[in-house]
Amino acid sequence: MIKVGIVGGTGYTGVELLRMLAQHPEVELTAITSRKEAGMPVSEMYSSLRGRVNIAFSTPEDAKLDQCNAVFFATPHGVAMAQAKELLAAGVRIIDLAADFRLQDTAEFEKWYGMPHQCPDILKEAIYGLAEINREKIKTARVIGLAGCYPTSVQLGFAPLISPRLTGGKRFIDTKYLISDSKSGVSGAGRKAEVGTLLAEASDNFKAYGVKGHRHLPEIEQGLKAIAGHDDIKLTFVPHLVPMIRGIHSTLYARILPEAFDVDFQKLFEDFYANEPFVDVMPAGSTPETRSVRGSNQLRIAVHRPGGADTLVILVVEDNLVKGASGQGIQCLNLMFGLPEDMGLQQIALMP
Amino acid sequence: MIKVGIVGGTGYTGVELLRMLAQHPEVELTAITSRKEAGMPVSEMYSSLRGRVNIAFSTPEDAKLDQCNAVFFATPHGVAMAQAKELLAAGVRIIDLAADFRLQDTAEFEKWYGMPHQCPDILKEAIYGLAEINREKIKTARVIGLAGCYPTSVQLGFAPLISPRLTGGKRFIDTKYLISDSKSGVSGAGRKAEVGTLLAEASDNFKAYGVKGHRHLPEIEQGLKAIAGHDDIKLTFVPHLVPMIRGIHSTLYARILPEAFDVDFQKLFEDFYANEPFVDVMPAGSTPETRSVRGSNQLRIAVHRPGGADTLVILVVEDNLVKGASGQGIQCLNLMFGLPEDMGLQQIALMP
Amino acid sequence: MIKVGIVGGTGYTGVELLRMLAQHPEVELTAITSRKEAGMPVSEMYSSLRGRVNIAFSTPEDAKLDQCNAVFFATPHGVAMAQAKELLAAGVRIIDLAADFRLQDTAEFEKWYGMPHQCPDILKEAIYGLAEINREKIKTARVIGLAGCYPTSVQLGFAPLISPRLTGGKRFIDTKYLISDSKSGVSGAGRKAEVGTLLAEASDNFKAYGVKGHRHLPEIEQGLKAIAGHDDIKLTFVPHLVPMIRGIHSTLYARILPEAFDVDFQKLFEDFYANEPFVDVMPAGSTPETRSVRGSNQLRIAVHRPGGADTLVILVVEDNLVKGASGQGIQCLNLMFGLPEDMGLQQIALMP
Amino acid sequence: MIKVGIVGGTGYTGVELLRMLAQHPEVELTAITSRKEAGMPVSEMYSSLRGRVNIAFSTPEDAKLDQCNAVFFATPHGVAMAQAKELLAAGVRIIDLAADFRLQDTAEFEKWYGMPHQCPDILKEAIYGLAEINREKIKTARVIGLAGCYPTSVQLGFAPLISPRLTGGKRFIDTKYLISDSKSGVSGAGRKAEVGTLLAEASDNFKAYGVKGHRHLPEIEQGLKAIAGHDDIKLTFVPHLVPMIRGIHSTLYARILPEAFDVDFQKLFEDFYANEPFVDVMPAGSTPETRSVRGSNQLRIAVHRPGGADTLVILVVEDNLVKGASGQGIQCLNLMFGLPEDMGLQQIALMP
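Structure tokens for the assembled complex are given below, as produced in the milestone run.
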């Protein structure tokens, strides 16, 4: 059994880790910390866990995280990097669901997250937690900077088009003019008391936000450059708030280069993801629904080329709290400890 | 033109006052105060008002409320009673949408609202703002303690059964065993940042709250006693939170006394409300929907006696922000200033 | 492995059976029938099942249901009773999710369902599928008439108060004046194209329906009489439609008899359900939420006595498609085949 | 008073016409037809109209539409063109909310709507009902083919960029590569019983649809060509279904041509719509919300140029049933009969 601790489990990614880890056959959950709620059984905050998860929040001091094999950080940005050094020294492996270990450029990190990076040396060895792209590196990683929710959908949606793996390095699309029109349920904003995500404000409503610049933009562009193997990438990223709890739907637009007009893009995607347990390339003509992945670690993709013209439209759906966060974290955990990649991640989506 | 000011207009009842008063032909809105947002155009907070309501929030000092004919308090409890004396001295009439002037018993007020009452003398002259019950008194009132949202639906639902007006003092139902199972949209909780009313918490969900005791219980019982003309009233009141923005649906249960088994309750309700502009007694067998009053000052009632047995079921719907708050306030304003009772209140509900 | 077939799996209870049975370690799903959709993979209708459930709908003829150990009927009323005789003759055990085997009085059945009962003899041996009440009988039953969604919540909510098991036959409440104010998500109406349950009609809205008389009323009263061991039962049942997908919340009202004023009702409920795997009596003061059981077979109950007065308020939540239908069916299946009662039913609710 | 009739008023655009026309000071509503519901008071279908709109549906025969000054067709495609000739002969002016008089190319009409056009001659004189573009022509039109809901948002969003009015014919954007990622509430699908728009299917969900080709695509391209004055237009149009009742949000993407890098696009939009009563160009940096126009005829636009790069992002919101249908129709009616353009269209949006 792998001993696992969770730092900061009061948010939505925390409860999702609990839900899935409680049913993971090779994980022993030893501690979950929350200084503010120390002593409170987790099932008091999330009644869905009553009778199923019987531990209480503990203070970081009582949690003895240094005795874990792995620790998840389901915390605000800045927490993981403050504790990473000590845990690594104790031989603990780290999976950070926040952004501390995502951006390799510390100047970019400071610009977007408004704080200096506390451990650039650890950042250097951190692996970006997106199993479909970095599977081998994740297996031996000590520190995972888990891919963000939007970035997962956008990168996996564009990857087959830009990765040299199947294209042989040939350019298929104009990578200087990528567009991601993304839509997220409000759980993406977390369990924070804010006026903007009240039901009375956000339901029966739709709007864009962060058009000027969203923290996920540099993360996505960094990831796309890594996948493509070149820096010739420019993305316009417009996130929107959908009046629903969970789910991300990214509608990606790419302009096909004349030399790629004859490519069978449906086949390209199917081949690229042929062996992926959690990526489902749907049949041509499909329109994936976010509810088809509600509560599951699955990500579904559909490839369209309307009117046979020069614009590709890629539709991607995922559950932002599962494949976009906690499930993806467990997927990395499984890889890091030599377990089957889908262990504990076999829940079928809840539909309707 | 009646000069009207609004104190504390940043909440939902504030914006509803603005929406309706902006279209009221005899009202001149002279000021809306918010110390916190002073200087900000109201249309910046509520973009629905762009191009239609062109005033900005002002500080209480700048608002010159003492030059108004009437002032609405769309504030938290405790604000109106702190300012009432001075305004009254200046000849301003007051309509308080909060609870400061609802409960005649100051001990009850202190118990439920956790603060001492600051002006028991003014409270004595205050009129309970429920036009269908207190129409004549409202006309000459200087201070209105406007009926709460739930209380409006419960009192108007039970009134025909307990008022001596049409029953001639005969008892029709067991008033010691009244039940109101009430349901409200989340705007009833106001525009406050709270975890419990986030979309991610409150949507796709249903629950009761305040079962142990809700502030509206003493208000309703006081009102029912006044309507009945006796104190033999006992209500069980269970409010619930509905995943919708607006609307209250109260399902009322009353046990018919044997001596009233032959009463035609449908006719009783129709007669009782025959001349009311804002109370719609629907045909027998109807099930009113909250959306049928969305955005309007209408309240709809349906009377049921399932299986012809001894239990009456009264269904009542209203828009909690209109008939349950701001619309009701304007209805009182019209009465106080001798205007047609429905002036500025003729919006048809938005459906779908 | 138990061979299981499903008749009529295109509705919501069908997909829920598939979701849960696909993860049941002792069940082999051999066939799912739909004459209309024969040949279509089930995952084409429910994309949530893609890659997880690989069978297709078949015609009843091709399904070879007579070779199953058990067959679920997830069909409209009237289908199961037409096929029961033949299946029973082949040694197949039947779990009907519709109403064919619920009402023991065939005249009542005809009155509420508008069709004659085709096999009164089989009806006589049918067991009412509510494990918490009929556990022993279910173990050996050949035919289960599974408890309906509302009836499950109402019966399990009143049972501790009226069952002689812990009361010793003493009356605690006035059973002639029971009230159930019940609320259901719209999936309770099934996957039928109807104007009334369109999102544009049912969302941001709340209403009662079926006040004159609902099919579940006779079922509930029959069940309560059986639990109480006497016929002195009268229920007022008012169902409401909540703008959410899943979940039932029943708010039950009962008048405490003077001789029971000193009973510790919280303890009574806790004792009554002490050993039940799927009934959670929450701590005093709790207000259960429907989302706390979303996708799970759990039912949660809270007991209230507002103001210490003579009215008991019992709050009950369940997922109408799981504990109110498919999960309950699998619970019965487990009992019928000597498996652990909670096998395949261990999903933790999805929250948020 | 203008005598107005409505053909086919049982759908959502019908009830919206009723809601607004009932408050229009210069309109007398003389008839509303529905063969199926003839005799039923409209307020029985839409309880929001109880006490406010007192006419009943009538058969086309009884409606005496030929005595109207104007007739709205709120019908499925194909109805208006069957009745147009006779009404025109009687001197009645026609406003068709369906597609019969939108596409000037009858071959295109047949391709997308699957029926031959019955009156190509009348089609020739029909004016496309988009007041901001065709104001003068509308004033004298006998037949209006009202702009569709999506097309209104897309055309008014791109118009300032492509119309020669302010650009002086200079090209600002690459009109061969326009993208509209559009999102609509489900009322856009109408009041038809369909599985896909049930609350249990469409709520807490998000998906694209019609990616292969949507009927509004040829209408939009025709409109953009007319606005631009050239045929060099190519649009990728991807509509999505949002779990809300009303509202359209179109996110438009356009690539700025190098020669236009210095254009002040914010000012361009403000100038272009400076005198429009129903188009609100919001301040730079805004993100318009659909709820800010709920129930109103307003359309709001925000102009973005993320990172100062070469992609323009235009955000447009409207109420699909008002500015996207019925309100727009009344706007045309006002123009046709020489009334103030905003008469009867002054409702402020309902927010929250």
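Residues 322-336 of chain D form the longest helix (15 residues). The radius of gyration of chain D is 20 Å. Further analysis is deferred to the final report.
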